[in-house]
Amino acid sequence: MTRIFTSDIRDDCRKDRPDPYPVHILDRVDRPTTAIHDNKIQRVDERDGGFQRAGKGEYGEKLKKEYGRFIGKHPLSGALCTMGGALGHMVDEPMKLKQAGRSPWNTSFWPPMPDTSDDIAPGTDDPKTNAWHIKETAYFLRADIVGICKLPQYAVFSHSKHKGKKVELNHKYAISIVVDQDWRTASAFNGSDWISNSMSFLAYAGSGYIACILADYIRRLGYPARSHHAMNYKVVVPPILLWSGIGEMSRMGDVVINPFLGPRYKAAVVTTDMPLEIDRPIDFGLQDFCSKCGKCAEMCPSQAISYGDKIMHNGYEKWPNDVKKCTSMRVGNPNGSGCGTCIKVCPWNKPFTPFHRTVNWFLRKFPSTRKFGIWCDDLLGYHKPNYKQKWWLDLDQVDGRFVTPKKSGYTKKR
Ligand code: SF4
Ligand code: SF4
């Protein structure tokens, strides 16, 4: 079993760039590989998201009830979500909270904020040097992949899920911080069993932790900055991932796939006015690959993913997905905690071994190899759980007590 952490590949890959993964070998393009009609996009109201709707009871009373317990029904995802929730208070100038007496914690140990109102820290005025340094800092904090783009205004929510407050955000740049959900665990789960939510919240809490520290650091250098993570976003993440060169839009709908991690990650964002050199979008052939594959659509337990062609929706070219079906499965899954079956079965969900790096290169460079690659992926059974690697406890909280569930996930035959 190969277990790959970013730190394992760091020395191997870095020579003249900050990134541990070889993002410099990817083909760069001027615009994302799926059309974005900037002037036709209506800013999104965060309250219209699937989870918010489920919580409000728009998908039925049963799901509304499940929404109250679906994360905490497994103790590990409950613990991870608690940490993510604590970070929700740390997104923007925690020192101001302290001064206003609204901080939820004893903040006497917090280092005072320097007075940078008229000044910036020396050596932080060059965009290229700053971009390199900010990436190095994010990797030091244990990010897996980092990309930078200009912040498009259409990627800012119109209203927040927190009391429907109108969202204003005029920062110039957005830094995407990507954290892997862990390959070993992904190889062992069947997609919709008792570890799925924990994998999500590991990466949500981890990327949120990095984003909160990075934003605070940038503010201490003299520039405005705000972190955005699962407990407190002001931005819609997929367009930011596209423009900052993290990945391409996939058949899964709003899921942006990275060539090295596949869909097996979550992202937080830092927005700022610090001058930064931006990255360009990438093209690794995913539009062609997804049009030939469709494995996620076939294996999705709720059939929320389209088998058909892309459509235009709110100015974005994308494969449509049924948010209600997906949310109902993730919130209401009676045989597991959440669902990540599409993440599990996607052929881009692989470890970063020499073998997979070679296959990855062929799939990116030669469209004619893709059908064969998909066929081999099926044959080798990568979509099946490798239970030898299973390490977690199957637990379900029923009426406030943990019990061992009778079933675990929905494994579809293929
Ligand atoms: S998370 Fe599960 S239900 Fe939602 S699209 Fe993926 S496979 Fe389908
Ligand atoms: S499983 Fe196949 S079709 Fe679905 S996102 Fe992955 S590559 Fe695309």
Explain this structure:
With 414 residues, this protein is α+β, with helices and mostly antiparallel strands. The chain has one domain (6-389). 35% of the residues lie in helices and 10% in strands. The protein is built from 15 helices and ten strands. The chain has helices spanning 6-13, 50-56, 61-67, 75-87, 94-99, 127-140, 183-188, 196-221, 237-243, 286-292, 295-299, 323-332, 341-345, 354-365, 370-380, and strands spanning 145-150, 173-180, 225-228, 248-249, 256-257, 265-272, 311-313, 316-318, 396-398, 401-403. Strands 1-2-6-3 form a four-stranded antiparallel β-sheet, sandwiched between helices. A two-stranded antiparallel ribbon has the order 4-5. It is globular, with a radius of gyration of 21 Å. The chain binds iron/sulfur cluster (2 copies). The site of one iron/sulfur cluster has 14 residues, from helix 10 and helix 11.
Summarize, please:
By secondary structure, the chain is of the alpha+beta class.
Specify the overall morphology.
Answer: globular
Radius of gyration: 21 Å
Contiguous runs where pLDDT drops below 50 for at least 5 residues = 1-5
**Topology order in helix (H) and strand (E) letters:** HHHHHHEEHHEHEEEHHEEHHHHEE
The average pLDDT is 92
Total E-strand runs: 10
- Which ligands does the model contain, each kind named once? iron/sulfur cluster
CA(first)-CA(last) distance: 24 Å
| Major beta sheet, strand line-up | 1-2-6-3
Total domain modules:
1
Helix content: 25-40%
Beta-strand content: 5-15%
* Number of helices in the DSSP assignment: 15
Q: Class by helix and strand content?
A: alpha+beta
* Major sheet details: 4 strands, antiparallel
